[in-house]
Amino acid sequence: MALTFDDIFTAYYSLFRADSDVPSNTDDEYTVGMRLANEAINYWANYDSTYWNELFTTNQLSNNLGQVYALGTTSYDLPTDFGEIGGYVQLRGLDGTVQARIPRLEPNEVQFRDPVGTYAYIADNKLVLNSASPNNWSGLLIEYPYYKKPTLFTVGASTTEMHDPYFIVHRMLANQFRAARNPYYTSALRDSEDAIRKMQLHNNSGSWDNPPTATDNSGNVWGL
After folding, report:
1. What SS3 state is found at 92?
2. In the 8-state DSSP scheme, what is residue 164?
3. Around Cβ 214, how many Cβ atoms within 10 Å?
4. What CATH class does 60-143 carry?
């Protein structure tokens, strides 16, 4: 369900004021509404330690980053919306075939590894690639999965990755009622919590052709 902030604000304001006349983007209520909406996005992003499917991507799919290995360059900028990396770093040819799969280390592990070994790690907002044979990598696409930070609203046409953005409407309403000490705060909060729990259930339940399975991940770290 793709809703812009203007769509969300209209829905929120109609419930809040029961008025068909919605303030323009120069009105103080619009500004406050965007702040409330972004609070709802941050609440969703950090809800119950959930990894939301909508926030998984790769650096090659990122709108602000696509990278090619350059001989002599070992450090590469992370995407601006980077949250945490997961899995291996891969190097692909232009035909899409994987030419190298590079294990990722935690930064504190690097000191114990061979300085001419092949591995990757994150340091100072960079992806660092250490290679025993960099000549073979020249011109290959660098690709890695990562969990990104959610997109916040900045203008009326902004959208969110959230599966059910109507949660934002209910969360905005609840926080507005709380600020006003309105007794409807409780019911609005209940509506917002119901919406986010349903999203979590949908997120964690797989799909009709890929149902969830109870796997034993004890001892594993996400992305490895």
Report:
1. strand
2. -
3. 5
4. mainly beta
**Contact between 121 and 107 (Cβ < 8 Å):** yes
Note the pTM of the prediction, 2 decimals. Answer: 0.84
* Alpha carbon 145 to its chain's center: 11
User: Residue 98 is inside which H or E element, if any?
Assistant: strand 98-102
Every domain of the chain and the residues it spans: 5-54+151-204, 60-143
Q: What torsion do the CA atoms of 20, 23, 25, 28 make, to the nearest 10 degrees?
A: -150
Alpha-carbon distance of 170 to 200, in angstroms, equals 16
Rounded CA-CA distance 45/149 in Å is: 8
Q: In whole angstroms, what is the distance from residue 60 CA to residue 145 CA?
A: 9
Residue in this structure with the two tokens 């793709």, named with its chain if needed? 2
Computed on alpha carbons and rounded to an integer, the radius of gyration of the chain in Å comes to 22
Q: How far apart are CA 176 and CA 180, in angstroms?
A: 6
For residue 111, the Cα-to-chain-centroid distance in whole angstroms is 30
Separation CA 140–CA 92 (nearest Å): 5
Q: Residues 62-110: pLDDT tens digits?
A: 765 668 998 888 899 999 999 999 888 999 998 889 999 999 999 999 9
